[in-house]
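Weekend entry, working from home. Most of the wet-lab plans are on hold until the incubator is repaired, so I used the time to fold the two sequences that have been sitting in the queue since the last round of cloning. Logging both here for the record. First:
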Amino acid sequence: MDKLLIIGTGLLGSRIIEMASEEFEIVNTYNKNPVDLQSTVSHQLDITNQTMTFKLIKELNPDYTIHTAAHTGVDYCEVHGSEAYSVNVTEARNVSETSGEIGAKLVYISTDYIFDGAKGR
């Protein structure tokens, strides 16, 4: 059975865990609030910590990674720009690079607040 790593266990991450639990061995990460789902093993991870992120992903060695963690509050992100950048950009790069190093396929899920397809960089 392939191993699926879900980074972020908010609404989206938790729902993916529920949907994929019969087809994958699932591991997940959380920052502050662990989820208690019988079909998965949870690991605490501060995704802004590059060393911790690299170490845990390499240790877990998933076949697939679905990255759902982010600051999604637009107003909060506008006021706390450097923190939002760290969480929404730098950590996404950390997850992407580490997944690539171990050969894990990566799915990154965003919102239209980051890029709606009509405008942006």
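Second, folded right after the first finished:
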Amino acid sequence: MKKYYFLGIGGVSMSALAIMLKEKGFFVRGSDETDGQGTALLNKFGIVVDFCVNEEEISKADVVVRSSAIKDEDEHLLCARKYKKKIISRGQLLGQIAGEYEKVVAVAGSHGKTTTTAMIENILRYAGRKPTLHLGGYKISDGKNFEFGEKEFFVTEACEYHNNFLHLHPYIGVVTNVEKEHMDFFKTFSNERKSFEKFKQNSAIVVDNFEGLSAKNVRHDKNGGLVFNLMRGNIKIMHLNLRICEEVNKENCIYAYLVAKKLGIDDCLIKGGLENFMGTHTRFEKVNCKFFDTVFCDYAHHPTEIDKAIKSAKKIFRNRELVTIFQPHTYSRTQSLLFEFVSVFKQVKHPLFYRTYSARENESQGMSSKQLSDIVHAHNENAKYFDNFEDLKAYLLSLKGQRPVLLFLGAGDLPAVLHKKQFIT
């Protein structure tokens, strides 16, 4: 039996791939720094996670799979090299697995790829096409980041970081948008654009624009769900009443619709799949909180995403005070997009900042959350920085009488902290 050992196995994409290999009959084990949602899911499938270097298990592995977040000097990776193990990247493994399917649908882009990927899978499953799914997030419907199906369709999120998406050769390649991102790897926006062009060249069919479709008469229903007409010119294709509320989802719907049509799905089934879709965790997800009645968690960590989340919250809750709590993801992103971050938080009366989620970096590689907060504070005296959860909680509770809408933003560990500290359930 072939043995795989994953470095960074608890990551949302890595855990999905690990489970897929385990279900195919391979031996799978791995290591991670923290115990979170991914490791909990792995445990359900009988996959052991090590939280320290397990030299014995690494020495037994036939293949070591490394996450892009694993640094070259990582002690687990050094151990694998010591035993001259075959080492492949997460992107290479994803490409190998995807290659076993007839038609690969890969969704790339700076924003929106997780939700769009999940929408496409939900439409295909609603239509009885039984796709296999690999997702960079967790579905609200069942908490999973994967789905096993038949061999015709493989629907996957395609990440551009370290050019991972270039290991894929999609039947349909989707590019939702391209913005300046991951400059720690790409160095220049020109390099990033070139990688996206290569991704499109690798795709038999490319969906990278709305092809004449638009969303009209956009509004929210009494439950906050997004309602609009999907139009081609002046012709109404369908009326949609979604269970998700952020307005950017009208764009995600258009991409999902276009992919489904190219795969031969009828409009009535597309409509059912979209209206049945419950969303993915931390994508403008309304969560329960015993202290406040309106709390959302959103994965937005790029200024464009943050801007859209803030605008949606303001539109839905136009008569309520909005408080944003942002945890920057990596020091380098904060520095490379500093002007954009400062601009987007100028539109918020109460912008709060939580300590940086460093991921693969250290503070010397960019700018900290504290530094960002200080700059915003120069324009808005309500801007505040918090290095620990208890101080943040105390401040939020001091605002309780104002009945604010709380919007937690970022791709770091703050949602996990909120759960652990029983602030949200």
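Plan for Monday: verify the second prediction. The mean pLDDT is 96.
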